[in-house]
Amino acid sequence: VGANYLDICDHAEGEHSGEAPAVASAIRRLLADKTGTFHIEYPCHGPTQQRWFRMRVSGFRQHGQFYVVLASENITDRRKAVEALAERENQYRELIEHLHVGVVVHASDTTILLSNDQAAKILGLTTKQLAGKADDDPTWSFLRGYVAPLTVDEYPVNLVLKTRRPVRDFV
Predict the structure, then answer these.
(1) What is the rounded CA–CA span in Å between residue 155 and residue 28?
(2) Could you identify which of 21, 43, 101, 127 might form a hypothetical disulfide with 16, taking C-beta atoms 3.0 to 4.6 angstroms apart as the criterion?
(3) Residue 130 has pLDDT above 90, yes or no
(4) pTM over cut 0.70
Protein backbone atom coordinates (compact mmCIF):
# COMPACT_ATOMS: atom_id res chain seq x y z
CA VAL A 1 0.00 0.00 0.00
CA GLY A 2 1.35 3.41 -0.93
CA ALA A 3 4.00 2.08 -3.35
CA ASN A 4 3.93 2.57 -7.11
CA TYR A 5 3.41 -0.94 -8.46
CA LEU A 6 4.76 -0.02 -11.92
CA ASP A 7 8.01 1.17 -10.29
CA ILE A 8 8.24 -2.09 -8.39
CA CYS A 9 7.79 -4.09 -11.63
CA ASP A 10 10.25 -1.89 -13.52
CA HIS A 11 12.97 -2.46 -10.90
CA ALA A 12 12.29 -6.11 -10.07
CA GLU A 13 15.39 -8.25 -9.82
CA GLY A 14 16.11 -11.82 -8.97
CA GLU A 15 15.51 -15.33 -10.12
CA HIS A 16 11.73 -15.02 -10.63
CA SER A 17 11.45 -11.42 -11.78
CA GLY A 18 10.91 -12.37 -15.43
CA GLU A 19 7.15 -11.78 -15.31
CA ALA A 20 7.48 -8.22 -13.96
CA PRO A 21 8.04 -6.50 -17.35
CA ALA A 22 4.99 -8.26 -18.86
CA VAL A 23 2.85 -7.22 -15.90
CA ALA A 24 4.02 -3.60 -16.11
CA SER A 25 3.42 -3.58 -19.87
CA ALA A 26 -0.10 -4.99 -19.49
CA ILE A 27 -1.00 -2.43 -16.81
CA ARG A 28 0.33 0.41 -18.97
CA ARG A 29 -1.67 -0.92 -21.93
CA LEU A 30 -4.84 -0.94 -19.80
CA LEU A 31 -4.17 2.62 -18.70
CA ALA A 32 -3.55 3.75 -22.30
CA ASP A 33 -6.49 1.88 -23.84
CA LYS A 34 -8.78 2.64 -20.90
CA THR A 35 -10.33 -0.81 -21.22
CA GLY A 36 -9.58 -4.48 -20.72
CA THR A 37 -8.40 -7.06 -18.23
CA PHE A 38 -5.23 -9.03 -17.65
CA HIS A 39 -4.26 -11.99 -15.48
CA ILE A 40 -1.06 -13.89 -14.80
CA GLU A 41 0.19 -16.62 -12.49
CA TYR A 42 3.68 -16.06 -11.19
CA PRO A 43 6.13 -17.39 -8.60
CA CYS A 44 7.07 -15.24 -5.63
CA HIS A 45 9.47 -17.49 -3.75
CA GLY A 46 11.16 -16.46 -0.55
CA PRO A 47 14.28 -17.83 1.03
CA THR A 48 12.36 -20.40 3.09
CA GLN A 49 9.24 -21.17 1.05
CA GLN A 50 7.89 -21.36 -2.45
CA ARG A 51 4.74 -19.37 -3.20
CA TRP A 52 2.68 -18.67 -6.31
CA PHE A 53 0.15 -15.94 -6.93
CA ARG A 54 -2.50 -15.18 -9.51
CA MET A 55 -2.92 -11.51 -10.31
CA ARG A 56 -6.02 -10.11 -11.96
CA VAL A 57 -5.88 -6.58 -13.34
CA SER A 58 -9.12 -4.93 -14.42
CA GLY A 59 -9.93 -1.46 -15.61
CA PHE A 60 -13.18 0.36 -14.99
CA ARG A 61 -14.72 3.83 -15.27
CA GLN A 62 -16.38 5.71 -12.47
CA HIS A 63 -17.44 9.36 -12.39
CA GLY A 64 -15.60 10.06 -15.64
CA GLN A 65 -12.30 8.65 -14.38
CA PHE A 66 -10.56 5.43 -15.41
CA TYR A 67 -9.21 3.19 -12.65
CA VAL A 68 -7.18 0.00 -12.57
CA VAL A 69 -7.61 -2.57 -9.80
CA LEU A 70 -4.98 -5.22 -9.09
CA ALA A 71 -6.02 -8.25 -7.07
CA SER A 72 -3.50 -10.90 -6.08
CA GLU A 73 -4.51 -14.30 -4.79
CA ASN A 74 -2.18 -16.80 -3.17
CA ILE A 75 -2.54 -19.99 -5.24
CA THR A 76 0.32 -21.90 -3.65
CA ASP A 77 -1.89 -24.74 -2.36
CA ARG A 78 -3.51 -25.19 -5.77
CA ARG A 79 -0.14 -25.15 -7.55
CA LYS A 80 1.31 -27.71 -5.14
CA ALA A 81 -1.76 -29.92 -5.61
CA VAL A 82 -1.44 -29.71 -9.41
CA GLU A 83 2.26 -30.58 -9.20
CA ALA A 84 1.54 -33.52 -6.86
CA LEU A 85 -1.18 -34.77 -9.22
CA ALA A 86 1.19 -34.54 -12.19
CA GLU A 87 3.83 -36.47 -10.26
CA ARG A 88 1.33 -39.22 -9.37
CA GLU A 89 0.17 -39.36 -12.97
CA ASN A 90 3.76 -39.81 -14.12
CA GLN A 91 4.22 -42.59 -11.56
CA TYR A 92 1.08 -44.37 -12.77
CA ARG A 93 2.13 -44.02 -16.41
CA GLU A 94 5.54 -45.42 -15.53
CA LEU A 95 3.90 -48.34 -13.70
CA ILE A 96 1.55 -49.09 -16.60
CA GLU A 97 4.42 -48.92 -19.09
CA HIS A 98 6.40 -51.55 -17.20
CA LEU A 99 3.60 -54.05 -16.59
CA HIS A 100 3.93 -57.41 -18.31
CA VAL A 101 0.30 -57.31 -19.42
CA GLY A 102 -1.43 -55.22 -22.04
CA VAL A 103 -3.23 -52.17 -20.69
CA VAL A 104 -5.46 -49.85 -22.72
CA VAL A 105 -7.16 -46.87 -21.05
CA HIS A 106 -10.18 -45.41 -22.84
CA ALA A 107 -12.14 -42.20 -22.43
CA SER A 108 -15.90 -42.43 -22.03
CA ASP A 109 -16.27 -41.78 -25.78
CA THR A 110 -14.15 -44.96 -26.34
CA THR A 111 -11.08 -43.13 -27.67
CA ILE A 112 -7.80 -44.49 -26.36
CA LEU A 113 -6.09 -42.18 -23.91
CA LEU A 114 -3.18 -44.41 -22.94
CA SER A 115 -1.77 -47.81 -23.78
CA ASN A 116 1.41 -49.63 -22.96
CA ASP A 117 3.88 -51.45 -25.21
CA GLN A 118 2.48 -54.87 -24.24
CA ALA A 119 -1.00 -53.85 -25.44
CA ALA A 120 0.45 -52.45 -28.65
CA LYS A 121 2.32 -55.71 -29.22
CA ILE A 122 -0.82 -57.78 -28.62
CA LEU A 123 -2.87 -55.56 -30.95
CA GLY A 124 -0.17 -55.36 -33.62
CA LEU A 125 0.14 -51.58 -33.52
CA THR A 126 2.40 -49.00 -31.91
CA THR A 127 1.27 -46.96 -28.92
CA LYS A 128 1.24 -43.92 -31.21
CA GLN A 129 -1.06 -45.73 -33.63
CA LEU A 130 -3.37 -46.69 -30.77
CA ALA A 131 -3.64 -43.17 -29.32
CA GLY A 132 -7.00 -41.60 -30.17
CA LYS A 133 -8.53 -44.66 -31.84
CA ALA A 134 -12.18 -45.26 -31.01
CA ASP A 135 -14.33 -48.39 -31.01
CA ASP A 136 -15.66 -47.58 -34.48
CA ASP A 137 -12.21 -47.36 -36.09
CA PRO A 138 -12.34 -49.48 -39.27
CA THR A 139 -8.91 -51.04 -38.54
CA TRP A 140 -10.21 -52.87 -35.44
CA SER A 141 -10.98 -56.52 -35.92
CA PHE A 142 -11.68 -58.55 -32.79
CA LEU A 143 -12.48 -62.21 -33.25
CA ARG A 144 -14.45 -64.62 -31.13
CA GLY A 145 -12.36 -67.77 -30.76
CA TYR A 146 -10.28 -67.00 -33.88
CA VAL A 147 -13.37 -67.53 -36.02
CA ALA A 148 -16.21 -65.03 -36.00
CA PRO A 149 -15.75 -61.27 -35.70
CA LEU A 150 -17.16 -59.55 -32.63
CA THR A 151 -19.77 -56.86 -32.98
CA VAL A 152 -18.80 -53.38 -31.81
CA ASP A 153 -21.02 -53.89 -28.74
CA GLU A 154 -18.87 -56.90 -27.79
CA TYR A 155 -15.57 -54.98 -27.92
CA PRO A 156 -13.85 -54.87 -24.53
CA VAL A 157 -14.22 -51.11 -24.11
CA ASN A 158 -17.96 -51.28 -24.74
CA LEU A 159 -18.37 -54.19 -22.32
CA VAL A 160 -16.65 -52.12 -19.63
CA LEU A 161 -18.81 -49.08 -20.37
CA LYS A 162 -21.97 -51.19 -20.35
CA THR A 163 -21.26 -53.29 -17.24
CA ARG A 164 -18.98 -50.87 -15.35
CA ARG A 165 -16.72 -53.85 -14.63
CA PRO A 166 -13.19 -54.58 -15.85
CA VAL A 167 -12.62 -57.05 -18.66
CA ARG A 168 -10.00 -59.64 -17.83
CA ASP A 169 -8.29 -62.36 -19.83
CA PHE A 170 -9.74 -61.10 -23.10
CA VAL A 171 -7.51 -62.17 -25.97
Answers:
(1) 58
(2) 43
(3) yes
(4) no
